[in-house]
Amino acid sequence: MTRNRPGWPQLRTQVLAGVLLITLVALAAFDFAAVSALRRYLLDRTDSNLASVVSLYRPGPPPTLTPRRQHIKIPAGQARAASGGFVIVGPRFRLQPSILDQYFLAFIAGHGSPKVFIEGNPNLVPRYLDRISVARRVQTVPSRNGHAQLRLQVVQRAGGTLVASTSIGDVDKTVGQLRLILVLGSVAAALLVASGVVLILRRGLRPIELMASQADRITAGDLTDRVSPQDPRTEVRRLGTALNGMLTRIETSVAERAVSQELTRQFFADASHELRTPLASLRANAELYQQGALTSRPQVDEAMRRITLEAQRMSRLVDDMLRLARLDQHPGQEEDLVDLSALLAGCAERARIAGPGQTWRTDIAPGLVTTGDAELLRRAVDNLLSNVRAHTPCGTVATVTAARPGDTNSIEVSDDGPGVAADELPRIFDRFYRVAPAQASCRGSGLGLAIVAAVVAAHQGTAHAEISPPHGLRIIVSLPADTEQQAAPAGCP
């Protein structure tokens, strides 16, 4: 697992870059909109002022006055062109020079150059005045001296065109000043946002960093450690809880795997030990025969008898091991209705025939039904009764009891034999576990009760052992009862 891949920015850097990018885009859009709106507003104000100035002048009849100079100032009313023929009638009040200096007005007669220079600042004369487009009433053009940009308004009058212009230098200065203020403010806002995001991310990601450090320690091998979620109301708490749950499952899985591996190793060790004794006996008898040590017919027969017994013992051991392996690999069994009452009665009858030295009693309720594999259940009950025959002396009274308390079938196999010590009861269902050395004639493989536990577990049941007063052993098996259907008799082979 790689923590930080080279070339990949960390989460804090990614979030900071994303927030700054969004902030800068938003600020740039706002700055552009603000500058554009202010420039449009100022130009509209300029156009409105130009329209007001233009509205003060209109054509009129030629008076008898002679202009004093080429650049005519209109003190109280009228002036006419030097070439005669028409005049421009001005306002009936005197315009302040400071106001007149902000504008340039000219009347273009016909198609030629200006015939009358009415009033204004000569620095505001538009370039290419004689080629100004009449189609565009309001336009921005350069000045004749090239030092300023002018806002120009063109109005059609009788006999010519009235042109008014004014500088938009103040507009550009105002817009430029606003642009500078907005740029500096945007930079300051971006720095402030970056600082705030860094502080918030540092505070917000601190619990995740702590959890990552704890996860690193856990990855190093300490699966018992857990992360410590901070505020239970945040997503970090949910992440920590989920991570702890995952670690618990991993720890449980690792522990179960270790236990399974240990059980497997122990199983192979016990199986090897169990197979060693009969194999050694087989080899010894075979070597005696090969070496010619068995000189008489009775000796050969005895050797063959021991070989047969050991071969049968090995066969039972291998069969039991295969059966357990199949139960471990495929715990699901058939789903047939099994008549437990008939099955238990048949098993008890076979035990009575096979073990005449014990006294067998039965108390089996009729109509006990369960769902499962009849052959496996029969094998489990046979193992229970064989355990009594193998480990109790002659004269022992064994009792098989079966009833249905509620939704469970309860099967008890008890005896009044020597019993088992209380500290050994939890282990009697372990594989290859023996309470005490058995006699050679009845020595088992140590897998009988293990098969019982596996079969019962495969049928969703339970099995446990307890002391049967005063000193015997009682094994209780519980199996689910099927009360809705009637079972077909299981019978006994």
Q: Could you state the order of secondary-structure elements as H and E?
A: HEEEHEEEEEHHHEHEEHEEHEE
Distance between the termini: 60 Å
Kindly give the count of domains: 3
Major sheet size, sense and barrel closure = 5 strands, antiparallel
Helical content class: 40-55%
Task: Tell me the radius of gyration.
Answer: 56 Å
Instruction: Supply the helix-strand structural class.
Output: alpha+beta
* Beta strand %: 15-25%
Q: Treating each run of at least 4 consecutive H or I residues as one helix, how many helices?
A: 8
Looking at the chains present, what oligomeric state does this protein adopt?
Answer: single chain
Total number of β-strand segments? 15
Based on Cα principal axes, name the global outline.
Answer: rod-shaped
Please state the average pLDDT score. 76
Give a brief rundown of this model:
By secondary structure, this protein is an alpha+beta fold.
Give an overview in words:
- The protein contains eight helices and 15 strands.
- With 493 residues, the chain is α+β, with helices and mostly antiparallel strands.
- The protein folds into three domains: 1-222, no CATH class; 224-330, Helix Hairpins; 333-480, Heat Shock Protein 90, CATH 3.30.565.
- The strands form four sheets. It has a five-stranded antiparallel beta sheet with strand order 5-4-8-7-6.
- A hairpin with a 6-residue loop joins strand 2 and strand 3.
- Helix 6 (340-354) runs parallel beside helix 7 and helix 7 (374-391) packs antiparallel against helix 8.
